[in-house]
Design a protein that fits this description.
With 557 residues, this protein is of the alpha/beta class. The chain has 23 helices and twelve strands. It folds into two domains: 280 residues, Orthogonal Bundle (MutS, DNA mismatch repair protein, Chain A, domain 3), CATH 1.10.1420; 189 residues, Rossmann fold (3-Layer(aba) Sandwich).
């Protein structure tokens, strides 16, 4: 009878601890949902952990296949895509971050893929409950440090193979000696103490050596637990995301054996109650139940890694869609892309998403464009917005424009270059290498290349820059390429007028004040304004007058 009372008290305490953990988690979830509602439509300012994006970049480069489009490192850095991604990223898990990064690095050329993503965005934009349920489920999974989930999965292959037979035998002896010590003779109880001390020591040693793998394993358990319980989405949402839901459901069933062992790890798998986790921890120290469960689970996960990866892809797709709904809501204006067969872009009122108060400009390109104008007039920002919106059209399906019609492009740029100090290459060598990769892409890509070139060959003297720059840009325009190039060399506007359409930005200088309209205009820039800008910025007349005389002397040669 006494044993029954003790057992009843134990079960009652266990259920109480579970109830308290569930209550606390529900309260925390409610606070999170409230925060989501209050922050919907507010621009994201997400910051990433040190080296997090570097790791994702290296992973993307390793995963690249020849048949896939890829935003290479030069273009990614030119466009400051790390910051752009932070502006788009409302995810609450490493799974979502990984998926969004991969999506942006690998543009697609299948209109059906973009159409499906756009349809899902429209649905989640109109169904707050489903959107928030996705965020909440992925928040339960959370973050896993700077490394990606694929690295975590691969790490499971490196777990040391240790036989658990000695542990099982000692556990059996512990139980036997304890029973005999309590019922037969105290000597058996002393044997129990000795065995217990041995078990505690070996447990501490084993757990210390496995610490990195255990941290990874607990994160994988969080993912499995969320898939096991299922995402609380509406029937309509599940049908729209059927491929994702099927993969999640299949994974939940496939790894049910692993989740049976989850009890022995305490924590979130047992309602998140700290008291219960402490109790389970001491039981594990004595009997190694968690180590036994760990080795069984790791073996099963490594054998079914592809199924696990399918779950990760599905979960990432769901959170990306929810995140991009928030991004779309935060924009002053956006549209879904339309794709056409001819090599062209026709976009109205485009802008750059990182600007707080952007000035919108149209993009109409049936032939390559040469862009002129003074510094700070808006040329580089316009170039970046053209390539960035082309990438957005072929990845997330949210374009910063009133309308967007274009063909599928392979995007490239050559803009924010610098000397390679460690590689020992000058700026000019870096620049021609950057241009060469665009020429190679134009020759090998099955679809047209869309490229932006800012100040072609600025790393050499004026005469060779104009001559070589003209030849390079003309060759690009002749090939499988639509090029938009910015230059200060007005001579190029006449040399390239047959191949390039001339457009320009201009500024106004009045009473010593410089103002920029940032509006794109047809034709080449008609004035050289560098010296006027020096005057406007307060440089003395002795300097600016001499500059004008030298400039006139040079142009008269």
């Amino acid at each position: 009878m006494e044993y029954l009372i003790v057992a009843g008290v134990f079960v009652g305490c266990y259920l109480l601890f579970i109830a308290i953990g569930i209550r606390d988690r529900k309260r925390e979830d409610a606070r999170f949902i409230k925060k989501l509602k209050e922050g919907y439509g507010i621009p994201s300012t997400k910051q990433y952990k040190t080296d997090r994006l570097k790791y994702l970049a290296s992973l993307a480069a390793r995963e690249k296949r020849d048949e896939e489009l890829f935003v290479d490192d030069v273009t990614w850095n030119d466009l400051d895509m790390d910051r752009v991604m932070g502006r788009m990223d409302y995810t609450n898990s490493s799974v979502g971050e990984d998926a969004l990064y991969r999506m942006l690095r690998f543009p697609v050329r299948d209109e059906n893929v973009i159409a499906k993503r756009c349809e899902r965005l429209r649905f989640l934009s109109e169904h707050e409950a489903d959107r928030n349920a996705i965020f909440l489920s992925l928040r339960h999974i959370g973050y896993a440090g700077k490394y990606g989930i694929r690295w975590y999965l691969d790490s499971m292959d490196e777990v040391p193979k240790v036989s658990q037979i000695p542990t099982i035998l000692i556990d059996i002896l512990l139980v036997v000696t304890l029973i005999l010590g309590l019922s037969v003779h105290v000597g058996f109880f002393l044997a129990f103490i000795v065995l217990l001390v041995i078990n505690v020591i070996t447990y501490m040693m084993q757990k210390s050596s496995l610490a990195p793998y255990l941290a990874i394993f607990f994160y994988l358990l969080n993912i499995l637990d969320e898939c096991r319980t299922g995402l609380p989405l509406s029937k309509e949402c599940k049908e729209l995301f059927k491929d994702c839901m099927d993969a999640i459901e299949a994974g939940g069933k496939s790894f049910r054996k692993v989740m049976v062992n989850a009890f022995f790890f305490g924590g979130e798998q047992n309602g998140g109650n700290e008291i219960l986790s402490i109790v389970i921890m001491y039981v594990n120290i004595c009997f190694h139940f968690d180590m036994l469960a760990f080795y069984r689970s790791v073996h099963y996960i490594t054998e079914h890694k592809d199924d696990f990866q399918g779950m990760l892809t599905a979960l990432g797709e769901l959170e990306c869609a929810a995140s991009l709904c928030c991004y779309k809501k935060s924009l002053p204006m956006s549209c879904e892309p339309e794709f056409v067969g001819d090599c062209s872009i026709d976009a109205k009122q485009t802008y750059h998403p990182l600007l707080k108060d952007p000035v919108c400009n149209d993009v109409r390109m049936k032939k390559s464009v040469l862009l002129t104008g003074s510094n700070a007039s808006g040329k580089s920002t316009y170039l970046k917005s053209v390539i960035l919106n082309a990438i957005a059209a072929q990845t997330i399906g949210v374009v910063c424009a009133a309308s967007y019609k274009a063909t599928f492009f392979a995007p490239y740029s050559s803009m924010a270059l610098r000397d390679d100090i460690f590689g020992g290459e000058s700026y000019f060598i870096v620049e021609i290498n950057s241009l060469k990769r665009i020429f190679d892409a134009a020759e090998t890509e099955e679809i047209p290349v869309l490229c932006a070139v800012d100040e072609v060959l600025r790393g050499t003297n004026t005469a060779e820059r104009i001559g070589a720059g003209c030849a390079l840009l003309e060759k690009l325009a002749e090939g499988n390429c639509l090029c938009i190039a910015a230059t200060h060399d007005l001579e190029l506007t006449d040399l390239l007028k047959e191949r390039y359409e001339n457009m320009h930005f201009e500024e106004t200088v009045e009473d010593g004040t410089v103002s920029f309209a940032y509006k794109l205009k047809e034709g080449p820039a008609k004035t050289r304004n560098a010296i006027r800008l020096l005057k406007a910025r307060g440089f003395g007349a002795d300097l600016t007058d001499k500059a004008e005389r030298l400039a006139l002397s040079y142009m008269d040669r």
